[in-house]
C-alpha cells in the first residue's frame, strides 16, 4: 500500500495548488493586510479532532483557501510595512515547490551533493554581493537570531582564555561582548544560551544618528580589562532593526584589532545594500569582520527561511561545530567533500540554497541592487511626505529603508503623544488597510515603516499617510 497516487493525479493536484498560489498573488485592492480575526476566531476556525479518515484533496485545497488564506497577514502584499519582512519573489516560490519534492537533507556531502555545493556557492555569491571575502565559509540557517548565535558561539570558542570544549567556561574569567543599545535582542538570547550571562553583554550608547559611540565602546573595553574581565567580541550593526542605522564599521574594526577581539557584523537586514550606489560608503570595512550575518530572506527578496552566516576563516567554524560520531562517518577516499554539519549546530538541513540560487540566477545582482535602491527611494518619499505635513513628525534619520515617525498635531504633552500613537498603532492593525509596527525612539512611541518589498508602489505609500492622518485625527479629537 502506498501514499502516492498516479503521476497524472499528482499533476492535477499540483495544478490546483498552483491556482491557489496564483490567486494569492493577484491584486485584491479591497482586501485587508491584517485579516482582523481574534485569537478565538482563528482557533475556532481551525479546531477539530484528529482526522482518522482521508479527505479528498480538492476539498482539502478548498479548506486551505477558506481557513489559511483568509487568516494570514499578507506579508507578500504591497501594503505590508511591518518588521523587516521581505515580500519574497515568485521564482523562489517555484524553488520551494521543487525543494519539497526532492526532500534533501544536506548534513553530509553524500546525503545531498547538489544541496551542499549549492549552499557553498550561494554563500560565496552573497559574500561577493556585499563585498566580503569569497574565501570565507558560509551556511544558511533559519534566520538572524540563530545566525548571530552561531557566530557568537564561534567567537566564544576562538577567543575564550581557556579551552572550553571539554571543561566548559567554568575555568574562565567572565567574558564580555559589546554591542550598541540599538543591537538586536538575539544577542541577549545568545549570551544567555551560551552561558556567558546577559549582564556581560555591554550595551554601548549611541550617537544622534543611532550609531555606536566608538569612544565609549573603547572606554568600556578598557574598564572591563582593568576589572579583570576578558573581552572577546565587539559587534557592529549594519542596519539596525529600529532605524536602519549603520555603525562605523572601520572604527569598530580598529578597536577589535587593538584589543584582540573577535569582530562580528550583524548585517542581517542592511547587508545587501553594501554595494548599492549612494550608500556603499557606509559599509566600508565590512570585509574586516571575522564574521557577518546577512539574511537573503530580508533584502534579497527570498521567502522565509534563509538566514546567512559568513565566517572569514573556515577552520574557525569547524573548530566550533565539528563533532563526528561513528554513525556519521563516511568513506572519503577521493577527498574534496564538505559536510555542512561541521559548520553549524543543526544536523538536519533542508535545501534552503535552491531558492537563493534560483532568485539570484533569475534576477541577477544588478536587478536586485536596483530594487534595493528603489526601496530606499520609497523610504525617502515617505520621509518627504512626513516632513511636509504639519501633523506628522520624523523621529530618526533614514539611512536605508526604515522610516520612524509619529502623529503629532501639536499642543500635547509627551505622555499624551505616546498614548495617542500607541492607540494609532493598534487602530491601524484593526483597520487592516495597511500594516505597520511601533517602536520606541529615545523613549517616545514611533510608527515604524520598513520598505523591502518591490511590489510597494507610490500610491501604497500615499495610502499609508492617509490612513495615519485619518486615524490620528479621529483618535486625537478625543485627546486620549
From TrEMBL:
Cofactor(s) needed: pyridoxal 5'-phosphate
GO biological process, alphabetically ordered: amino acid metabolic process; carboxylic acid metabolic process
Presence of the UniProt keyword Lyase in the record: yes
InterPro entries, per the entry: Aromatic_deC, PyrdxlP-dep_de-COase, PyrdxlP-dep_Trfase, PyrdxlP-dep_Trfase_major, PyrdxlP-dep_Trfase_small, Pyridoxal-P_BS
Modified residues (N6-(pyridoxal phosphate)lysine): 298
Keyword list, A-Z: Decarboxylase, Lyase, Pyridoxal phosphate
Signal peptide residues on this chain, from the entry's feature table: none
PANTHER family recorded: GROUP II PYRIDOXAL-5-PHOSPHATE DECARBOXYLASE, MIP05841P
Family: Belongs to the group II decarboxylase family.
Stated name of the protein: Pyridoxal-dependent decarboxylase
Organism: Fodinibius salipaludis
Amino acid at each position: 500500500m502506498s501514499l502516492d497516487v498516479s503521476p497524472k493525479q499528482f499533476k492535477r493536484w499540483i495544478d490546483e495548488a498552483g491556482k491557489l498560489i496564483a490567486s494569492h498573488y493577484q491584486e485584491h485592492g479591497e482586501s485587508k493586510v491584517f485579516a482582523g480575526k481574534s485569537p478565538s476566531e482563528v482557533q475556532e476556525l481551525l479546531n477539530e479532532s484528529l482526522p482518522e479518515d482521508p479527505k479528498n484533496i480538492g476539498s482539502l485545497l478548498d479548506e486551505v483557501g477558506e481557513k489559511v488564506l483568509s487568516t494570514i497577514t499578507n506579508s507578500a502584499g504591497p501594503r505590508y510595512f511591518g518588521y523587516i519582512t521581505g515580500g519574497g519573489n515568485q521564482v523562489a516560490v517555484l524553488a520551494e515547490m521543487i525543494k519539497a519534492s526532492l526532500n534533501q537533507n544536506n548534513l553530509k556531502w553524500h546525503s545531498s551533493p547538489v544541496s551542499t555545493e549549492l549552499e557553498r556557492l550561494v554563500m560565496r555569491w552573497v559574500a561577493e554581493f556585499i563585498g566580503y571575502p569569497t574565501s570565507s565559509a558560509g551556511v544558511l540557517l533559519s534566520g538572524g537570531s540563530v545566525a548571530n548565535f552561531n557566530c557568537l558561539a564561534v567567537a566564544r570558542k576562538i577567543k575564550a582564555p581557556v579551552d572550553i570544549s571539554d571543561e566548559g567556561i567554568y575555568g574562565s574569567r567572565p567574558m564580555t561582548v559589546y554591542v550598541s543599545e540599538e543591537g538586536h535582542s538575539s544577542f541577549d538570547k545568545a549570551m544567555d544560551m551560551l552561558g556567558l550571562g546577559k549582564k556581560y553583554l555591554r550595551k554601548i550608547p549611541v550617537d544622534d544618528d543611532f550609531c555606536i559611540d566608538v569612544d565609549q565602546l573603547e572606554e568600556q573595553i578598557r574598564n572591563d580589562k582593568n576589572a579583570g574581565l576578558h573581552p572577546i567580541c565587539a559587534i557592529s550593526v549594519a542596519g539596525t532593526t529600529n532605524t536602519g542605522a549603520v555603525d562605523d564599521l572601520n572604527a569598530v574594526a580598529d578597536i577589535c584589532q587593538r584589543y584582540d577581539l573577535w569582530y562580528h557584523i550583524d548585517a542581517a537586514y542592511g547587508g545587501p545594500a553594501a554595494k548599492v550606489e549612494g550608500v556603499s560608503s557606509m559599509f566600508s570595512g565590512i570585509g574586516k569582520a571575522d564574521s557577518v550575518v546577512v539574511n537573503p530572506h530580508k533584502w534579497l527578496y527570498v521567502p522565509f527561511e534563509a538566514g546567512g552566516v559568513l565566517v572569514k576563516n573556515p577552520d574557525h567554524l569547524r573548530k566550533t561545530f565539528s563533532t563526528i560520531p561513528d554513525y556519521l562517518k563516511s568513506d572519503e577516499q577521493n577527498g574534496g567533500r564538505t559536510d555542512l554539519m561541521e559548520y553549524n549546530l543543526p544536523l538536519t538541513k533542508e535545501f534552503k540554497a535552491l531558492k537563493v540560487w534560483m532568485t539570484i540566477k533569475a534576477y541577477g545582482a544588478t536587478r536586485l541592487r536596483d530594487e534595493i535602491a528603489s526601496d530606499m527611494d520609497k523610504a525617502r518619499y515617505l520621509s518627504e511626505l512626513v516632513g511636509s505635513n504639519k501633523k506628522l513628525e520624523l523621529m530618526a534619520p533614514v539611512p536605508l529603508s526604515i522610516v520612524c515617525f509619529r502623529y503629532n498635531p501639536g499642543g500635547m504633552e509627551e505622555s499624551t503623544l505616546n498614548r495617542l500613537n500607541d492607540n494609532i498603532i493598534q487602530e491601524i492593525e484593526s483597520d487592516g488597510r495597511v500594516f505597520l509596527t511601533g517602536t520606541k525612539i529615545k523613549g517616545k512611541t514611533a510608527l515604524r515603516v520598513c520598505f523591502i518589498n518591490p511590489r510597494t508602489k507610490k500610491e501604497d505609500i500615499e495610502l499609508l499617510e492617509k490612513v495615519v492622518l485619518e486615524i490620528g485625527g479621529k483618535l486625537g479629537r478625543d485627546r486620549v
